[in-house]
Amino acid sequence: MRGRRLMTTERIVAVTADPDSPVVDTLSDWVDEHGLYLEVYAVDDEIEATLENGTSTIGVTIGGDGTFLEGVKAFSPLEIPVLGVDLGTRAFLVRVDPADLTDALGEVIRGEAFLEERTRLRVQADGLDATGLNDVVLRHAPPDEPVDRKITRFEAFLADEYVGSFEGDAMLVATPTGATGMALSAGGPIHHPRNNHTLQLSPVLIHDLSARPIILHDGLPLMIRADARVELSVDGGRHYRHLDPRTPTKVKRADRSAQLIRTSVEAGEFELLAERLGWHPRRGQVPDPPSPIITASPSDDIFAHAKQLAEEAARSVGPQLRDLHGKTESIEYKSDKADIVTEADFHSESIITSIIQDEFPDHNIHSEETVHQEGESSYTWVIDPLDGTGNYANGNPNYAVSIALVKDERPVVGVVYAPETDELFSAVEGGPALRNGSQISTTDRDQLAESVFMSGYDPDGAFLVHFYQVTRGVRRLGSAALHLCYLAAGSCDATWEYDTFPWDVAAGVVIARAAGARLTDVHGTEYELYSDVDDQNELVGSNGPLHDAVLGHLHSHDELGSLGR
């Protein structure tokens, strides 16, 4: 994913094997030139306690893969992305040559770099609960006497299923990132690192010709135990334990991935392998790549380009929103919760608006919080950086990021992202409605008694009272953007909002209409987004076939029928 959110970088935290390296001086000079803030730590410094999450922080490691792994250990729990500068001898993880450092950093702050998520492992054993990026090794402990047994029987289980037993020197569990290390030496396959949801179980020096590496899904817990005393090592000894016989070691995907920054100055994955390993399939001159099947650029269609940009912007704010959301329930005082919500709101807004301003500098911007950019363009971006702040403040997962492009007061592009469920809804006027790339559509129910409703703010509970008994239920999520998206996806059949600001519903309107929904006011007039940015309009949305019945039931009760604003 393009690292658009890196445009808001304000602080760089560097971890280096050599604080006196000229590369540190180069980094310091560049930071001063760009008005940023720099902190430099040696590899063996305890830096975790000094770090704090923030979309304004990136990590830089200066050294080899070992330094990089130390940086990942500190940065990943806070979802701080990390860029590796290569001072090593045979590095596979760090890619930036010191001579290219300033060019790489320039791409970062311009939002041109890419972020790659890499699976991290969580390892649990007797007295150990650790994480790693590369691999976990269980190796037969050296015997006390030369004549003692030198191999171990290892048993492996995936969830509740017995995988098998292996007799030999060691068992190794590697991520795709770690596949080019010990796993490769053990005869394992090379994984392209974007194949990011697998684990490789590799027997090492096993006394069985039929033993082969096994590829497993990283979403299932793996358990290994040995019949003798073994040494457990994570990421080359960054965590180390001796385990007694039959002690289980549990390996599963860690809750948080590592975020690696990739730039155009770095070698590609196969180019690096060819250089480091003398990889024979790449012998000879590198041919020109084949022509792409589709040559059109997103920029050829402003709506498609805007949709792609909004999707990248919405996803880019997800990590920090999730992180701060996880802290709200541990806050004792309400005022501090409000501070967290305010921080989340403004960080999200800052990233999204920076991305849009960089790509479409002449477009207008209306955001719920503080950013209002007015110009002569017929295009306006309407943004709610955090829809559902009440939910957010109380640890409820029903909140979303809403981004819409409006042309002459008509919403034409909509993107809504729910960070906690990782659902990305999107649509362009005239095109399909999508959820995570798959097309969605409304239901076809036409009877109130068979339908499920969602409602927004209901001042006196009248809507709930009069629709609860005649339907299968009325739900309220507390996010108008999600209400419209779930209407589009068929998770409900109708929705009602007493009042809406443009940023509440602009993106959802595009998505719902693209999915086949009908949107009106309580009088049946087609819903209009706004005539003024501060207008609040009621909204009645349905799957279409149900709409007349919804309006009829609304007007059968005076207190509901008079809600038109």
Question: What does this molecule look like?
Answer:
It is a single chain. Helix 7 (318-325) runs antiparallel to helix 8 and helix 11 (480-488) runs parallel beside helix 12. The protein is globular. The protein has 14 helices and 30 strands. It starts with 10 loop residues before the first strand and ends with a helix. It is an alpha+beta fold and 565 residues long. The strands form five sheets. Strands 6, 7, 8, 9, 10, 11, 12, 13, 14, 15 and 16 form an eleven-stranded antiparallel β-sheet that branches. An eight-stranded mixed β-sheet has the order 19-18-20-21-22-23-24-25, with helices on both faces.
Give the helix/strand layout.
Blueprint: E1 11-16, H1 22-33, E2 37-42, E3 57-63, H2 65-75, E4 82-86, H3 101-109, E5 114-118, E6 121-125, E7 128-132, E8 135-140, E9 152-158, E10 161-174, H4 182-185, E11 198-206, E12 214-217, E13 222-226, E14 230-234, E15 239-243, E16 249-253, E17 258-262, H5 269-277, H6 302-316, H7 318-325, H8 334-359, E18 364-367, E19 372-373, E20 379-387, H9 389-393, E21 400-407, E22 410-418, E23 423-428, E24 433-435, E25 438-440, E26 453-455, H10 462-468, E27 474-475, H11 480-488, E28 494-500, H12 502-514, E29 518-520, E30 537-542, H13 547-555, H14 558-561
Parallel strand pairs: 1-2, 1-3, 3-4, 18-20, 26-27, 26-28
Antiparallel strand pairs: 5-17, 6-7, 6-16, 8-10, 8-14, 9-10, 9-13, 10-11, 11-12, 13-16, 14-15, 18-19, 20-21, 21-22, 22-23, 23-24, 24-25, 28-30, 29-30
Helix pairs in contact: 6-8, 7-8, 11-12
